[in-house]
Specification:
8-stranded mixed β-sheet; 5 helices; globular
């Protein structure tokens, strides 16, 4: 993929029951998730369609993976110019490798890593020359915001700016919780980094765009999920909801308060 180094390019849900995830997210976000994995595929991986293009995939967790500690969650892929060089730099800066770099034919080269505080993510160089549009804050169903809940937000900010060429945007004073540091990629604000001792562990939280945040929050509950925070207005006039899907994977939604 030709996206600028450091751009979020794909989102992946790790789920025990892909069909249950398919029903839940179709109701809540409006996605179409493939009912079956591709014929002959070595793994159970189903694409997520936002109506105007693919934004991610659902990876089925096996019983063995769960027995070894894997749990349902959302993962973000960050596009990079060179996966191996990026992994080496991450390790040299105190990060770790969870899955060494490998090639997927006709897809690209990927590796799963974690930052020095333990937040996990993928780095990827796609085989296609086309830009990924999975991340687009203006399009419903696409990734719109990327929020890192870190043990030390300031140190995490330094790490990601150095690795991916992100720029510091404005900071928001959150009172006792400290500074919420926004970051931008190619001049566009795409997320924020904060210290959060109340989060279970350092992790990235992805916000997907919806139209009508209150209606979306109601759909979360109706479909069997849980709203754990919101709807709440945030600086700039947007609205957010944080939730858990029926398997416990944390996700978030952002958008307008009501459907126009």
């Amino acid at each position: 993929m030709a996206n600028r180094h450091g751009t979020p390019i794909w989102y992946e849900l790790m789920a025990k029951d892909p069909l249950a995830a398919r029903r839940f997210y179709a109701e809540v976000v409006g996605w179409q998730i493939d009912e079956q994995p591709p014929t002959g595929s070595a793994m159970d991986y189903r694409m997520i369609h936002a109506g105007d293009g693919m934004i991610g995939g659902v990876f089925k967790l096996t019983d063995e993976m769960c027995q070894n500690g894997a749990a349902p969650c959302w993962m973000t892929y960050i596009g990079v110019d060179d996966v191996d060089r990026c992994v080496a730099s991450i390790v040299a800066s105190g990060g770790a490798v969870s899955m060494p770099a490998f090639d997927i034919p006709n897809v690209g080269r990927i590796a799963m890593v974690s930052d020095p505080q333990g937040a996990a993510f993928y780095v990827m160089r796609g085989a296609s020359d086309e830009n990924s549009t999975a991340c687009d804050p203006e399009r419903a169903g696409h990734g719109a915001w990327h929020e890192l809940h870190a043990a030390d937000g300031a140190k995490a900010t330094e790490f990601y700016l150095a690795q991916f060429g992100w720029d510091k945007s404005r900071g928001v004073d959150m009172g006792p919780m400290g500074l919420y540091q926004l970051f931008s990629v190619a001049g566009r604000d795409l997320g924020g980094i904060m210290s959060d001792a109340n989060f279970p562990r350092p992790a990235w939280l992805v916000y997907f765009r919806v139209d009508g945040i209150e209606q979306a929050a109601a759909r979360v509950v109706k479909a069997g999920g849980q709203v754990i925070h919101g709807p709440m207005e945030v600086p700039g006039g947007g609205w957010i909801v944080n939730g858990l899907d029926p398997e416990g994977a944390m996700f978030a939604l952002t958008g307008t308060r009501t459907v126009a």
